[in-house]
Amino acid sequence: MRKVASEKLTIQIAVVSGGASGMGRVYALRMATQGIAVAVLDRSESALAELATLSENIHPYTCDVTNIEQVRHIIDTIEQRLGPVDRLVHCAAIMPTGTLAAQPIGDVHQLMAVNYGGTVNVVSAILPRLKKRNMGQLVIFGSLGGYVPVPDCGAYCASKAAVNLFAEILIEENRGSGVHILLVCPPLVDTPLLQQATATGNPKTVRDSIQNKRFATADGMIDALEVGLHRKTTILYPNSEANVLAWLRRFSPRLVWKVIHAANRVQTETAK
């Protein structure tokens, strides 16, 4: 097995949660081609089985990240079979959408359970191991939507706001530990989550982005992530759109809402 060095850290074993599709799948395959043993956690057995056929370095594990006991057991199993985990990439997320007044309450709770609760579970199962060895990388995928509001995606944005703040505080609490924690806040990315979003509430912002192909690519986001790891970045806005919107939201929140409402009006008028 060829080893890949990240400054002083040599990455041999990686875990990718939510890695059977989207950005997790892209990064899992990229690491596997580099000779890294990649344990992929996902709920979809069929997607995991298909992914495992693409590389002998992919090790699939069916996992529900909302189940902390299952997560702990799987991480124990991975370390027993493959060795100590050097890098965690947490991507597991769902994106059902709808207005806050109309979205089924079960969907709202499930969003928080998977997106935020799943983050807490996976991180709590791996971070202590990395800290004990005083080395490793922990990548958490939050979202630009956790900072910038998106109409008809309120519950999703709330869950990602929880993830973003959890990760930001985690970074500060663990500075100097030897573990590099990176929060990635991508904009809309061309992954199956977009289809899930339009199949439920079908938000205007998401629908327009799909129609006009105005979204980031998974490969582009992973390219930016790798640069962030190399540079020891802690909070990453992986493209210019994400950087501009995050800046506007911080310094001119009302302007962001005006831009959003104006864009939605244009979309509505164009559809007539």
The value of Rg in angstroms is 18 Å
Give the overall shape, derived from the CA principal axes. Answer: globular
- Low-confidence segments, ≥5 residues, pLDDT <50? 1-7, 268-272
Strand order of the largest sheet: 5-4-3-6-7-8-9
Count the E strands: 9
Any idea of the CATH class?
Alpha Beta
Mean pLDDT: 91
Per CATH, what is the topology? Rossmann fold
Helix content: 40-55%
So how many helices? Answer: 10
CATH homologous superfamily (4th level) name? NAD(P)-binding Rossmann-like Domain
Element order: H for helix, E for strand: EEEHEHEHEHEHEHHHEHH
Main pleated-sheet profile: 7 strands, parallel
Number of domains: 1
What's this entry about, in short?
By secondary structure, this protein is of the alpha/beta class. It contains ten helices and nine strands.
Can you walk me through this structure?
This protein is α/β, with parallel strands linked by helices and 272 residues long. The protein has one domain (4-245): NAD(P)-binding Rossmann-like Domain (Rossmann fold, 3-Layer(aba) Sandwich). It is 53% helix and 15% strand. The chain is built from ten helices and nine strands. It has helices spanning 22-33, 45-52, 68-81, 105-133, 154-173, 192-200, 204-211, 218-231, 240-251, 253-271; strands spanning 4-6, 9-11, 13-17, 37-42, 58-62, 87-90, 136-141, 179-184, 235-236. The strands form two sheets. The chain has a seven-stranded parallel beta sheet with strand order 5-4-3-6-7-8-9, sandwiched between helices. Strands 1-2 form a two-stranded antiparallel ribbon. Helix 3 (68-81) packs parallel to helix 4 (105-133).
